[in-house]
Amino acid sequence: MVQGASRGIGLEFVRQLLEKSDKGHVIATCRNPDGATSLLDLKKKFMERLNLLQLDVTKESTIEAAATSVRESYGSLNLLINASGILSIPDVLQPETTLTKVEKSSLLLAYEVNAIGPVLVIKHMWPLLKVGGGSGTERKHAVVASLSARVGSIGDNGLGGWHSYRASKTALNQLTKTISVEFARKKDPIVCILLHPGTVDTDLSQPFQRNVPKGKLFTKEFCVQSLLSIIDNAKSSDNGKFFAWDGQEIPW
User: Fold this and answer.
1) Can you tell me the distance from the alpha carbon of 31 to that of 56, in angstroms, rounded to the nearest whole number?
2) 195 close to 230: Cβ distance less than 8 angstroms
3) Cβ pair 139, 193 in contact under 8 A
4) For a tag on the chain, would you pick the N or C end, based on fewer CB atoms within 10 A?
5) Residue 82 belongs to a domain with what CATH number?
């Protein structure tokens, strides 16, 4: 299941998961599946294997409904990818370059979408996360992979700024780490990891690409290929860890 799949990295995850194997099913969720033209195009190509579900991370009732639908249709999941996130919205949310630009509304919105939403998705999908929850996987455990960002690392923060986005991703990291401890304590065969995709050529990064160093702006195809390699090779000992796209662990 890919949560936040209508565009960008989430959409590319759906495409590559479908194309890498001719077995298994992929569930793609977004706020408005009927308006997700790229997902609908994929649905035409993979009619039997792609299921589109409505899910808005800011509305827990839609998360519960999606979990019910997955349980009734498939019984279980072996991979959950949280790909949704916000960085900027014109006239609503912009990365803060100074403390004087920090607003309560921006802090709350970033936290709701980037931290609370993915954790509620994990909460409701937890009973469905099983080993071998579909065909085409060799993993000995289910995997939960949430997209975070290096700027969420407190230890790596040498530039400051971007208060809302940084803090929301730091919160996601802490919440996911805490969940991973609970899963391990209860001996659930689930590996929770956090992934930094790098700076990827998507709508999210487009307004901020001018200052990206040469060779550091990745295509969606390269990014997802790299992240899927980390997911496919995730071991039990990786539970609760934070990885960059190149497999290097990121400090908290």
Assistant:
1) 5
2) yes
3) no
4) C
5) 3.40.50.720
Tokens of 62: 């839609």
pLDDT in tens, the chain (252 residues): 999 999 999 999 999 999 998 889 999 999 999 999 999 999 999 999 999 999 999 999 999 999 999 999 999 999 999 999 988 787 788 888 899 999 999 999 999 999 999 999 999 999 999 875 444 455 789 999 999 999 999 999 999 999 999 999 999 999 999 999 999 999 999 999 999 998 766 655 455 445 655 556 778 899 999 999 999 999 999 999 999 999 999 999
- 251 falls within a domain: no
How many structural domains are present in the chain?
A: 1
| 229 located within any domain | yes
Range of the domain at 78: 2-244
